[in-house]
Amino acid sequence: MSPFIIGLVLLAALLHASWNAMVKSGGTPQFSIASYRLISAVCCLPLLFLFPLPLEASWPMLLASAIIHTAYYATLSMSYRTGDLSQVYPLFRGLAPVLVVLGAALFANEYLPSGAMIGIGLVSAGLISITFAGGAVGKIPAPALRWGLATSALIAAYTVADGIGVRAAGNPFSYIIWLFVLEPIPIGLWLLLRERAGWFGYMRAKPGKIAAGALAAATAYAMVIYAMGVAPMAMVSSLRETSVIFAALIGTLLFREPFGRQRIIAAILVCIGVVLIKILS
Predict the structure, then answer these.
(1) How far is the C-alpha of 192 from the C-alpha of 195, rounded, in Å?
(2) Per-domain residue ranges for the chain?
């Protein structure tokens, strides 16, 4: 992977941690997520006329990703309702790269050298260790564990779908724009039917936070999709999940969560893994 792509994905990781912290602190995760996606979609609508349609071969993956993202937003909301950010976020972001390795091999015939595999393993082990560390951080409720595991599987599923789709689209920006336009339709319709008053009230009350979260969420995943168009999916996924370290720092600085020895060890493992991904792949 080139230094440019590594830097791009690490910046995406920081943005990803930022918008997830906003979702967790917003009080109603489903309203936050739907609002971010809606704003992103509205901003992308004019861009549909500036880029060609994605090639036909990419549309199955594009539609599959939109559906998987809808399920992911539901499990993500439940994860944040049942567990702390410092518990569930490392779990599903840490397990996802391992699942992406398997998915990329099965569905895209994408196999990595042993050095990259070791690096990804270290990154995932470091991240997951935060969830199961001793003390208050490690006491994850059973419902949060179940929702976190479901979320990790869905993250891997949409990552592989988007990795395959963007490569078949002909133009990566066409794929990104259409995905962002399609994504909010299912969750938006659901909230309009079930919780319209609450959702609209949330958007009226927090326009600044919604705009910031939408910008961070859209920019972060656009960078990741672009990177997967030119680099192995599992390596991009693993680098992206360094967002857990950024989330730990955000939790410490903003939510007064303890950083602690385990998070320091996890950060060291992640850094070693990232170096191995760079020099041995």
Answers:
(1) 6
(2) 3-280
